[in-house]
């Protein structure tokens, strides 16, 4: 290896790992892996490390460094039909790169530029690359606010401690005036829905002005709480231009909406962090515009990275693509997102790469979404292994043939069947709402 | 076709096309295309179009509609190694969808949710999908500010009317203190560089505080203008958390930076629009975090869409992946981005799908980036067919063996060769800076 290339490699023991975040990439290269990995570090940090004619080296402080490089296989054709004209040999590699925090500070856009910018995606000899993970030293994480409530705070907020949370997407999702929309939500709360939510496509519009909608649903939510004696939450979608987000937050909270949703990749993660610094209520992320860069198998960004960054930005609950044929997502990828919500994203304080069990950022509630109903609870609970998750059905509550109240009741009955250790069909024999839900789901 | 499916199809003549934006997708489906396309419209708009037990239909006002559907081929295996377990038949289709503006209003995050959200990327029967284009009716475009300066305004701002603009990325890109960084920029201005710019990885850091950097370079820029008698611009990178952007704008402008750069997909497009509403100087977009969702051939979002949306958000110049082996981008895709900057993105007022020659949004200057030097000018000029573009070399100016002044001079000499109709080598015979640049580039 040339000296210039060596300068982009380091042992973790030789670095103060509290000063580096760690990027974990898959890449496929047409050049020898150490050359490709060194170039990758160069492109995403000190592209030119000295002035012409000056004896200096900016790399010791500012260069990204390869701290681990494994060649996984030697394929005989490119992993994707990419625009490479020719290749003699191909290498599929996994590389971990230590990136100096002093280059980017605790700023999400800066971090994204370093991890997913021109340097990472246009490095010589690398035609396919996917960012699989990011790990952070604890001191770096402490510079972010993270979720204000987290899983524990959300449980206290909703008063639900011993089971998954039941979110429901109010449907018809768009087109209804605030009054009938309110009536649907009210019915679902009477049936025990924990959180009635705006669809991700429901915005502040002429036919459903945000001020009026949040006022009507805020009033109805409180009325439902008086009627049922239980906590009823309304999750309002504030997604809109960044310069409106804080105003929409204030309107919503003043009007009685008690949770807020942001389509985070559409507004930008940094905008979400801005709302987090200001928010009075829990924040929920919706996964629009995540698939376009996460789902290609050998290119882009793994969804766990987006989930982690949403948690870092301060979301208390994160909706992502869940199980089921419609979501076209590998079971393992769904569970990766669950872990990104619940587990530590912190490196050990001693700088070793194993995750620490301790994490300065609160856990966020995982919400693996997509075509859910009462029958989704058991398999999800078994997959996830904890009740710390939520489901987010739409049709199963608001398309239930006997109305949203019955729809919400069917979810509770579905969970009762799980805790009773009884099959759904058995439990449905004397639970009409669940019986109807089973037929409805089979349609 | 069932009636429910038919409700998601329309002739453009039957719609008031001034009330719709048009999304143009490639998709590959495992179900019959009209079924797949109808479902796609349903998922991205009226997922449920009536309340249970109520005679109503929200689709006439709120449904997305297929206005064009073409089956391009019938492949025998999936276009990407995606998570689909089985298929009987496959269809590769192009579909144009009219999307109701009343659902989203003139909001970039709302538009992104509709075009690239859960609905588009998780529609039943469609496992691969790529958003290829968006077209807008003129009345919709008028609700956006667009570039404050545009190509004409940028020419007036820089005083360069008759050739491509020469941007240069100051290098070493990161790690230098403001004083030597300023000295490099000053030298490049003496050599005639139009715009010396911060690297996309250079942020507000402890070792290069933004306040100090912009002050020193603002002063040096003015000094260079006095010395050369020509306009010298400093493009400062304000990329950072969204809630700092307007402050950084104000600091930069007060200190004499006269153009500002944002890594737009890292901050979010809507944050850029917020800066646009406030800005006193031209704005330039850099293309970090664009590749992860634009470069997979059958999945994600075409880069022309991102370029158009950056122009819509208000950038006066847009840097994107240009020509050359390192950029791994098809020539046609580069030219698509050039067109997205310069040509109309407006539908004709009569609603026909041909682009109107008139566009309420000013053109943005295309900057196809990547490893450029004096020799990049001729092929780019021939490809683009106009001088309305910029190049953005780094090494060719700031790594020039005789320093940044000579590097900047070599660009002018390269362009002089083009206008003189002389080969670069011939012109270099009595132009030392160009001769050195030619050898340097061959290294």
Distance between the termini of chain A: 63 Å
Biggest sheet features of chain A: 8 strands, parallel
Task: Give the amount of beta strand of chain A, in percent.
Answer: 15-25%
Mean pLDDT of chain A comes to 95
CATH topology of the largest domain in chain A: TIM Barrel
Number of separate structural domains of chain A:
2
Oligomer: homodimer
Structural class of chain A: alpha/beta
Overview of this structure, please?
The structure is a homodimer of 443-residue chains. Chain A is an alpha/beta fold. Chain A folds into 2 domains: 133 residues, 2-Layer Sandwich (Alpha-Beta Plaits); 293 residues, TIM Barrel (Alpha-Beta Barrel). Helix content of chain A is 39%, strand content 17%. In chain A, the strands form 2 sheets. In chain A, strands 12-11-9-8-7-6-5-13 form an 8-stranded parallel beta sheet, with helices on both faces. In chain A, α9 links the parallel β6 and β7. In chain A, α9 runs parallel beside α10. Chain A starts with a helix and ends with a helix. The mean pLDDT of chain A is 95. At the A-B interface, α4, α5, α11, α12 and α13 of A face α4, α5, α11, α12 and α13 of B.
Record keyword descriptors for this entry.
homodimer; 443 residues; alpha/beta; Alpha-Beta Plaits; TIM Barrel; 2 domains; eight-stranded parallel sheet; five-stranded mixed sheet
């Amino acid at each position: 290896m040339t000296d210039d290339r060596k300068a982009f490699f380091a042992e973790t023991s030789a670095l103060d790992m509290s000063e580096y975040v760690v990027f974990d990439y898959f890449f496929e290269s047409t050049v020898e892996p150490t050359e490709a990995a060194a170039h990758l570090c160069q492109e995403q940090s000190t592209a030119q490390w000295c002035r012409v004619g000056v004896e200096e080296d900016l790399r010791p402080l500012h260069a990204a460094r390869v701290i681990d490089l494994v060649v996984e296989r030697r394929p005989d054709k490119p992993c994707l039909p990419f625009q490479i004209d020719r290749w003699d040999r191909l290498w599929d590699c996994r590389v971990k790169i230590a990136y100096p925090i002093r280059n980017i500070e605790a700023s999400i856009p800066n971090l994204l530029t370093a991890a997913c910018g021109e340097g990472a995606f246009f490095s010589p000899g690398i035609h396919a690359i996917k960012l699989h993970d990011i790990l952070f030293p604890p001191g770096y994480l402490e510079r972010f606010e993270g979720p204000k409530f987290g899983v524990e705070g959300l449980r206290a907020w909703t008063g639900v401690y011993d089971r998954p949370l039941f979110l429901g997407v109010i449907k018809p999702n768009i087109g209804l005036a605030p009054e009938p929309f309110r009536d649907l939500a009210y019915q679902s709360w009477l049936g025990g829905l924990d959180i009635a939510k705006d669809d991700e496509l429901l915005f502040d519009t002429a036919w459903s002005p945000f001020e009026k909608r949040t006022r009507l649903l805020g009033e109805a939510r409180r009325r439902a709480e008086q009627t049922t004696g239980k906590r009823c939450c309304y999750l309002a979608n504030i997604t809109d231009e960044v310069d409106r987000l804080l105003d929409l937050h204030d309107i919503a909270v003043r009007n009685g909406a008690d949770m807020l949703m942001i389509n985070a990749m559409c507004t930008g993660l940094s905008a979400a962090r801005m709302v987090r610094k200001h928010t009075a209520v829990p924040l929920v992320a919706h996964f629009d515009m995540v698939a376009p860069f996460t789902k290609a198998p050998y290119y882009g960004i793994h969804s766990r990275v987006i989930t982690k960054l949403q948690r870092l930005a301060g979301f208390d609950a994160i909706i992502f693509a869940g199980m089921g044929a419609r979501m076209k997502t590998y079971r393992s990828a769904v569970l990766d997102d669950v872990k990104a919500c619940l587990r530590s994203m912190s490196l050990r304080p001693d700088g070793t790469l194993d995750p620490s069990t301790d994490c300065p950022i609160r856990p966020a509630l995982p919400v693996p979404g997509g075509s859910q109903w009462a029958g989704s609870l058991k398999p999800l609970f078994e997959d996830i292994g904890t009740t710390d998750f939520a489901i987010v059905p739409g049709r199963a509550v608001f398309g239930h043939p006997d109305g949203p109240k019955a729809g919400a009741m069917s979810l509770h009955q579905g969970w009762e069947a799980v805790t009773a250790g009884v099959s759904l069909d058995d439990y449905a024999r004397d639970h009409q709402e669940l019986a109807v839900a089973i037929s409805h789901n089979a349609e």
